[in-house]
Each structure stands twice: as C-alpha cells, then as structure tokens.
Amino acid sequence: MARVLVTGMSGAGKTTVLEELHRRGFLTVDTDYGDWELPDGTWDEPRMSGLLARHRDLIVSGTVDNQVRFYDRFHHVVLLSAPLEVLLQRVTHRTNPYGRTPEQQAEIARYIRTVEPLLRRGATIELDGRREISELADVVEDLVREMP
C-alpha cells in the first residue's frame, strides 16, 4: 500500500474524489476540514508528520504552501487540474463557500497562473479533473494499491 497526496486548485475535484475513495473503504483525510490547517493557511506540521508516521496506506488531499515539505513522505502526488471556467463553475455550486465572490474568483485565476505550475512540478501524475469521478478514483486507488 502507498500514501497518496491529491492536490490542485479549488474546484478541481479533490474533495469529491476523496469522498468516493472513502466510500470504497480507504483511509482519507481532507485537510480542508478538521483543523489540519493553521490560521496562516499551512498544514499543522507536527500533526501531519504524526499522521504520515502512523499510516502507510492513506490518501490525503489539500493545497497549502508547506505541502512540499511532505512530498518525500508520499509515494505519489496527484495533481487534479481543470480549465479555469470549469473551476469557477464548480466553486459557485458547492457547499464550501470559498470561490463565490468576484475577489475569490480572481484569486483562483491568479493561483492558476502562479501556484498550479508549482504543483505540476512536484506532481508524480496529473489527472484531468473533468473525468468521471469513478475514473479518477480508480486511478488513485491503483496508486494506493501499488507496492512501493
């Protein structure tokens, strides 16, 4: 079994893919929920280190400034990506309130230009977030089941 990080911009499908993988019986942690992030928007490093030390088979999702510090503890870093128009359409129709204001949408557009290239550089695989959720979950499931 392997540890996998699923990352990407808001609206790329991270939470939805994790929900499907959780439904399939995998241990998942969506760091957008449960106080994994500190007020400065970074992961709580001691807490994340403890989580990764305890679990060899785990799927984590999130996009934070300090995630790169943990890349060596994941067997795979999956980047979910989608065109800006798709991301903006999705963030306006989800339960998470981030992305509904014009300012937040401009921020997402800026992150596509500035943050996503950094995520792409650190990713071991990039998946098109417009694919069916079951297909995306199948790919991540195969990565988790790999013997590193």
Describe it.
- It is a single chain.
- 41% of the residues lie in helices and 16% in strands.
- The chain has 148 residues and is α/β, with parallel strands linked by helices.
- The chain has a single domain (3-145), classed as P-loop containing nucleotide triphosphate hydrolases (Rossmann fold), CATH 3.40.50.300.
- It has a 5-stranded parallel β-sheet, sandwiched between helices.
- Strand 2, helix 2 (45-54) and strand 3 (58-61) form a beta-alpha-beta unit.
- It is globular and about 45 Å long.
List the helices and strands and how they pair.
Elements: E1 3-8, H1 14-23, E2 28-30, H2 45-54, E3 58-61, E4 76-81, H3 84-91, H4 102-114, H5 116-122, E5 125-128, H6 133-145
Helix pairs in contact: 1-6
Largest sheet: 5 strands, parallel
Count of folded domains: 1
Unreliable residue stretches:
none
Structural class: alpha/beta
What's the CATH superfamily, by name?
A: P-loop containing nucleotide triphosphate hydrolases
CATH architecture level-2 label: 3-Layer(aba) Sandwich
Q: How are the strands of the largest sheet arranged?
A: 2-3-1-4-5
Notable characteristics:
single chain; globular; 5-stranded parallel beta sheet; alpha/beta; Rossmann fold; 148 residues; 6 helices
TL;DR of this structure?
This protein has six helices and five strands; from the N terminus they run βαβαββαααβα. The chain has 148 residues and is an alpha/beta fold.
